[in-house]
Design brief:
alpha+beta; 6 helices
Length: about 170
Amino acid sequence: MIKIIEVKTKKQLKEFVEFPNKLYKGNEYYCPPMAQDEFNTFLPDKNPAFEYCESKQFLAYKDGVLVGRIAGIINHTHIERQNKKQIRFARFDAIDDIEVSKALFDAVKTYGIENKMDEMIGPLGFSDTDREDLIYACKNSGDFIALSFCRTAKDIEELRNYCKEKGLVVI
């Protein structure tokens, strides 16, 4: 049986942050985020994006074992600018189990419906600036660009193609 829990305590948030380290242990392509930064991302008193966003995080358990996580984010500034009531999903990581994945996405969908959102998009974080940050880094001689997690060579190729589309030099 799958049970979805909304993250409400710091202990649960720690589990949320640390889950990918367990899930991807041994995966040579996994580069863990800085734990404290990831933890602070979801604390309203540490992340200034909470001035215009709200978020809920969810954990999935199967037979009492943590098997997945996902975050739902409502960016009110984006909604106002785009005139689209969209909830974002972020930080989706789960075992290879369709029922676990469905339960996690359903949790974000329900959160969106409760807040009168019309659609779910993602994966997207709190900010709309990921691509703009990429362009800025390339145009201003950034030493390197790092993706938060690359499972395959295709992830790298997508980044390279995006840079090329924007007229950036790709080595």
